[in-house]
Structure formats: structure tokens, C-alpha cells
Amino acid sequence: MSRALSRAGSLLAIACVLFASWAAVTPKEAAALDPFTGYLMAHFTGESATGEQIYLAHSRDGLHWTDLNNGGPVLLSTVGTRGVRDPALVRSPAGDRYWIVATDLRIASGTSWSDAANRGSTSLVVWESTDLVNWSAPRLVNVAAGISGAGNAWAPEAIWNPATNDYVVYWATNSARNGVTKHRIWYARTSDFRTFTAPQLYIERGGSQGIIDTQIVEVAGSVGGYRYYRASADGHITVEASNSVLGSWTTLGNLSHMGISNGTGGGNVVEGPMWAQFNGRNEWALWLDQFATGRGYMPILSTNLGSTRNFRTHSDYAMGGSRKRHGSILNLTAAEESRVLGRWGSTLPVNRIQSYNVQDRYVRHANFDVRIDPNVSPAQDAQFRIRPGLAGASGTVSFESVNFPGYYLRHYGFDFQLAANDGTSTFAGDATFRQVAGLASGSWASFQSYNYPDRYIRHYNYVLRLDPITDAQGRGDATFRLVS
Predict the structure, then answer these.
(1) 52 three-state secondary structure
(2) What does the pLDDT look like over 352-381, one tens digit per residue?
(3) Average pLDDT of each block of 10 consecutive residues along the chain (484 residues)?
(4) Which residues pair with 428 in a beta bridge?
(5) For residue range 43-94, what is the model confidence (pLDDT) as tens digits?
(6) Which superfamily, per CATH, for 28-344?
(7) What range(s) does the Alpha-L-arabinofuranosidase B arabinose-binding domain occupy (predicted)?
(8) At 310, is the secondary structure helix, strand, or coil?
(9) Which residues lie below 8 Å from residue 191, measured CB to CB, with a gap of 6+?
């Protein structure tokens, strides 16, 4: 072999190794996903005990929504403030990985808005999945740590940026800059939602005007003249456009001509703009949360995003049983939709738990204590959904309240209470029971504790307890029947 050929062969081998290494670490280019068939919304519901967690809703047409998981939360934050708001659903370009990124904030714990904005968490909460139904444990990412005087990190969003071959994650932080303290939008880049670049200023409005909520939608074919559009709550609902995520943006206008603003223009005061394209057609919905009146989300529609004058109101929509607060919408393929509905779409029946030896009485919660009573009012206080045991053991059950979704019957000090699932293994064990043949009658049922298997649910002076059962009275007290 000649020296020239030998050198050429060596260079070719080196090039192959370099290419293989590059291919191994470079994210896949955007893949042509299967046709979209449905829609998934991630949201929170408000400042109730379990409202600041991750909820999901499903729609076939993008306008009429059904609560998933029987209206209960599907993911609970066990990190940071132990509450989350403003969840963003993110799909990888190849459609093989998903993330939820959310604000680390729990107002229901008693935190004031001033403390949350000025002395709050500067981290975001992240979950990761490969199938949209099995999610990692939540983790904190301190994205705003590099911002001088940062008071918080709110309302995160993320979008794939082909120009940099990674994701742009953007959020609002309240901090002082040039002598003015207010919320501005900052961004960082990431390829894995674990390691982030240093934060950079992304959007700043003039004077003292702050900006918190902003969301970008990518428009295939540049309908309206641009590839990207963003809507921001900055006193108005301002719509801007660009052909580059990190490039310059052109202001197209706001919604003041529709009587809609974020406060500066009065009228219908809204926040939390949320984009969604309708499947199979060039039409978009911009969902706006009517928080000032408590009426929840409303859609305005457009077939051409190039001008805010093209938007129109739409009255034929339904948001499901729960109030939906600032979230995001993901268009679903048939395979994704099947997985999501298979996991959270089934509707569990509503049951009451009837006492065996005092048959006019039913298990009910009252001020979060648990007892058996006759003539329960309101009736929902005695209604439960029987879920697979939270501890995950085969053949076990947990009892979820109908009127307090996310709250379960659990023992604490061998007394019973209705408590919010905090996501811990201790809670799961305390709220899990094995249904066995009734101790007083085999045609009824008794419920054996998962983590104290020598004890059973029983009533004593009409109050629910977890006790060992040693006599006939106890066997009667520990026997129940599930009825509709």
C-alpha cells in the first residue's frame, strides 16, 4: 500500500470514528411523527391543598375537555416547596422523550405572593418520561441562580431550537436591573433538562411594566409570514412573531380591540396564554385564563396568525369538571393517546362503604376526620373511588375521596383521617389495604392494613380506627360492604 493511500485510509478511519461519536451525542433531528388524533392538557387547579400539582385533561377536538384520573392529580411534587404551578409539556423532536417543567410554588402552604415573588424558589421542577405515562421522580433545577438578586423562577416553557440543536427553556424572574425591580423573561439552553447554560435576558418591557407569562408556538409553513409566534401577558396580551427562537421579534399587536387585556387595558382581564394548533388544519386556538372573574380558560381562534385582527372568539367549548389554570397543550398521536387514556382515562365507579353491624351508617369524612354516620350530608362526604393500592402491592386498594380528589383515607397513629397524598412511601403504606373476606360475614369485606397486617379498619364509638381484631364485637365492627 502506498503512503498516500495509507494516509487516506487513516484519515477515513478517523472521520468515521468522529462521525460515530458525533452521532452518538447529537440529538436526533425532528422526526415525522404519526398523524395527531387528540390533545393532552397539563394544568394545575388553584390554591387548594392539592390544587398546585399536575393534572391532565384530554380532548378529541381541541375544544371539549375531559378530566383524566377522575379529576385527581397525576403527579405530586415532593421537592422544593412541594407544590407546582404552570406546567409545560415538552416532546423531543424524535417523539421518544417527554418532560414536564413547572414552577416550584405552593401558595396553599400559606406563602404570601410578596414572599413568593421576592424570596421564593429560583428552581424549576422537572419530570421526565419515555412514554407519557411512566414519569421519573421530580427533580429541582436552579435555573435562576445566576441572576443577581433573583426572587423567583415562574411560568417556565420550553421549545426545541433547530438553530442551536437543543431546547430553549424560558421563564420569568423578578429581580433588580438598571435600578428597576420587576419580572422579566430569561432563558437558558439545555439538551437534557439536567444541565443548563447560564441564564440570559430574553424579554424585557419598558419602564416598570413586568412580564410573567409567555408562550411560543412553532407554525409549520410560516402561516401568517413567520415561523414562530409568542403571546405574552405584559399588561396586554401582546402577540409577536419571529423566524428564529433567539432572534429578533416583531410586535404584531395585542387583543385590546377584542376587549381583552392583562390589566392595563381593562376589559376581560386574562393571563396564562396557551397555544394549540388544531389537528389536520391550519387553525390555532389561543387559550386565555379569565382569572380576574374566575371563569377559567376561554379560546380565541385564528387561521392566520400574522395579525391580531384575525382572532375571533368562540363559544362552543367545555373545560371539564375542574378549573384549569396556566398550563400547556400537547397534540397526541394515536399511540400516545392510547397510552394516556389506558392509564388515566377509565372512570372508576363511586362507592359508599356500609357498616355491617350498623347498616344505616356509612364511612364518611367530616372536617377530615373519619367516622360512620347515617343520612350523610352532603352525600359526597361518604363517596369514594376504590383505586389500586397506592403502595403498589397486588390485590390491594386505596380509598380516594370523591369531593376531595387526591385525598385518601389513611391511618395515622392508628386513627383515621382524610389526607392529601403527599407522594411519600409512608403515606402510600398508610393508605393501602388488602380487601379480604368479611371477618363477621364472608359475603361482606374487611380491610387489612398493608403496613400493619395484624390490624384492620374498624369503627369504635362510630369513629374509624385501625385495630387488632380479637372478639366478635371487633369482627362486626371491622366488616363492611361496598355499595353504589
Answers:
(1) coil
(2) 999 999 999 999 999 999 999 999 999 999
(3) 37 38 34 81 92 95 94 92 97 95 96 97 97 94 97 98 97 97 98 98 97 95 93 98 97 97 94 96 97 94 97 95 94 94 87 96 96 94 93 90 89 95 89 96 96 97 97 97 94
(4) none
(5) 999 998 889 999 999 999 999 999 999 888 999 999 999 999 999 999 999 9
(6) Glycosyl hydrolase domain; family 43 (2.115.10.20)
(7) 352-481
(8) helix
(9) 27, 165, 166, 167
Smallest Cα–Cα separation from 185: which of 165, 164, 199? 199
Contact 322, 67 (CB under 8 A): yes
CB 343 within 8 A of CB 352: no
CA–CA separation, 147 and 143 (whole Å): 9
Burial status of residue 257 (CB atoms within 10 A of its CB: 0-12, 13-18, 19 or more)? exposed
Single-letter code of the amino acid located at 161: N
What residue spans in the chain does CATH classification 2.80.10.50 cover?
352-483
CATH class of the structural domain 352-483: mainly beta
Residue 195: Cβ within 10 Å count: 10
Q: 251 with 238: CB under 8 angstroms?
A: yes
Taking a C-beta distance cutoff of 8 angstroms, is the pair 273, 252 a contact? no
Interatomic CA distance for residues 317 and 314, integer angstroms: 8
